[in-house]
Amino acid sequence: MKKQLDIIGQGLPKHDAGLRVSGKAIYGQDIVLPGMLYGAILRTEHPSASFSLDLTDALALPGVVCILTADDVDVNRIGYKRDHPVLKQGEVCCIRDEIAAVAAETREIAEAAVRRIKVQYEVRKPCCDPFDALQEEAPLINRYASGKFSNKNIAETFHYAHGDLDAERTRSRIILNRRFTLPRMTHACLGPSSITADYDVVSRKLKLYSSTQVPFLYQRDMAHALKMPPSDIRIIQPIIGGGFGSKLDMYPFEVICALLSMRTGRPVQIVYSRKEEFIASPTRQPMVIDLTAGIDADGKFTFREVDIVKDNGAYTSWGATTPFVIMQAFSSLYKVRACRFDAKAVYTHNVFAGSFRGYGNPQATFALERMIDLLADAIGMDKAVIRRINANEPGEITGQGLHYETCGHGECLDVVIRQSADARSTAIDAASRDRARYRSGVGFASMLHVGGGAKIYRSDGCGTTVRIDPYGHCTIITGSTEIGQGSETVLAMIAAEELGISLDRITVINSDTDVKPWDVGVHASRTSFVAGNSLLGAIAILRPKLESKARQLLQSGDIDLLFRNGRIETNDGEAHIALDKVVREMHFGEPNELAVASYFYEPPSQFQDAGFKGNVSGSYAFAAQAIEVEVDCCTGNVRVKNVWVAQDVGKVLNQMLLEGQIHGGVLQGIGYALYEELLMDEGYILNPNFHNYKLPTAADVPPIHFHPVETYDRHGPYGAKGVGEAPLIPTAAAIANAVSNAIGVEISSLPVTPEKVLRALEENKHKLHLA
Amino acid sequence: MTPPIETGSAQSATEQTIVCEVNGHRVTRRVNPLTSLLELLRDHLGLRGTKSACNEGECGACTVLVDQVAVNACLFLAVNAHGSKILTIEGMLQPGGGLDDVQRALVECGAVQCGFCTSGMVMRIRALVDEHRPNTDDVPSGMQVLPSRANIQKQLEGNLCRCTGYIKIVDAVEALFQNKYGNPA
Lengths: 771, 185
Fold this sequence. Notes:
Helix content of chain A is 29%, strand content 24%. Chain A is α+β, with helices and mostly antiparallel strands. The longest helix of chain A has 28 residues, at 527-554. Chain B folds into two domains: 16-91, Beta-grasp domain (Ubiquitin-like (UB roll)); 101-177, [2Fe-2S]-binding domain (DNA polymerase, domain 1).
């Protein structure tokens, strides 16, 4: 490291926590504009139907200003495949479909008007199983499907391969084949989705207060939908009440809100109810994974063959591209000599899936890590040893072309294997005893994820402008977005470290597309890495300007200068000058110059070729988790007792915020493993509320023992890698392995509910009787 | 003395006038009997620091104190607050603008991420901490019975958070019980 770090690495509270803890943070639902109307959306009552509308009664309600249906608007379809009409015309394809929208003087009137719209449905039988949808006789689900695939209901396909499969199959001592089934999980952000649209009929410009996590892509998508120039749309991001990937796409309600504002000439706000949040938000991709894997006599992984059918739902979002990430786990997590991967996203009449923290990786990791346990059992190897001998290594270039310049996989495994050793031996002792009611077990899982952005778009860049005012206050204008994860804090810490300015004299501006430079958005655990490097690039341009003026004022010659305590000092401590004075001299002295610099950072990664090969990220993050559970064999209840987490974070930037990401991710992983599933029956959602869709509560939290592994990647800011998604990814896999370890049953689907545990125990008993 | 509720006039037969104290200020409003306390606070009084996240009493984001008891404002009828003292997140700052001890503990323990649950969490923890404070000055410090970590976790069960994993929130409550943040004025 080039110098002693003063700020970076410390556990500092969130930069704006004071705002958030005093109720002064303004979220989407808190915005009130003069003359604002309230919007409400009428959604279909049936997942597959044709319909006709009668608006008479609704229009007669005093206070109703505008009602829009598909017949009233001229817009383009939206979505990753442009297969999604904003308002549906005569036909609905899933239970979240928007069929009319109202703007009214109050929220109550808007809701009452929605109830007064009369709808005549001609209900059809929905097709809700992706395997049924692939049958010849299945109905065409989305009439705007591209039609370029072998089956009319396929939305997208992916094929990847490396290595010699036949040879590796021959070399394998054991080959196993299993099917894994993953559920529909929803983000359940505490802050309900919301948007406020403010169209200026004079300038014909549109201002949107939107919680998007990708403001610049959103601006472009919105412009396409509304047939407007993108530059006429300004996106302002209020404080965002949780993202986790849910705000990566643009949704119909946002375009509808803009249309209502354009039609009425008044600001319009739409805020989801909680029920709407459950019904009309994207979900984690449900999928069926067929995995065949081999192992040779030395316990080395030989090959993996993967066939995935993903339930796309009725429309295609960015979530359809999750196989980009899914295939990385199968091709490149642990060394494997050959891999074939095929995935298809299939339209159904279910609500559509989107992107969710981990982006397909939790599903892939569940299948892979369950399979590794099965292979270990089949070949008679210890489950820790089999993972350790196949672990990824620094310098490795995988079959897919991922280049692990640094890699802490082995060290992460070593840490959690060591830390969980006592729990493992206790579990083994308990297992050797007779049928106890409570049985404990330990499970392992690793994960690989992009840690330096992901070039799945033409640029994975981020722009930054940094300036210092004549009073020594620093403003960072960053393209990146804060969704609660703490990126503002990390950026302020970087500026404090490099410019010697105290944190309370640094402001981060990141919420206005008319002000901030371009950025691809917050996803792929990229923000600290990409925005951090971008800020460092801007500071590297600004500092020489300040140094040059300081040298002139100090008459200090070539001696090295330090930025410390709001001053620029000679490194021998002989002379110093206040930073604000230097800036004033730059502004007012010859040559007049601003203390400002801008930089656009593009990570050193590749856009993958048609075969999905290439070094897609600037660095790669690794983690291992060991989880101890206790299973109640009478009730089937699973309690998580301990979670050991070791994660290759490159370098700790802020210990406190890092721990926050780990804790939050692990708990979401526990929810995915044990509780959470958005239940659908024939296209209807059965549990659209917190009572029947259980989020983990404070009472469900086990001790989480976290050990950061620092590998100092040369591409990361101070060596850091992305951390946000990683802690969720291996958790469900490790819990399933632990349950299997505790009670000796196969777990091949999530969530591991008490019913599933009891059924598995019953089947095992049956098998024992037969044996 | 609690003034009796005045029943509606001929013009608005269903509305009722309530008088209560919100963050130390006397408030008189005419409300529909079905208006929730959350609607009264957010929509009628413009106190938008209290958040609306589920509107069915499941998540705790709208927690406020009514006569020092933590309630879900979405399930509490405004008319039932007649004559009560209500404390919301806006009333938590100390004179001069400083954070109170619960707020400081949450900030310094890193217990805030997106912050949407935080207003409700602050109010719930305020009630929890105050319940366990000794009633008189006679109890020597260290003599009060402090709740265990598991007990704290159980008592925060009604306040959902999707970001933090709760650990740092529970850390903050433990720190408060250890008087690491001093007693508020």
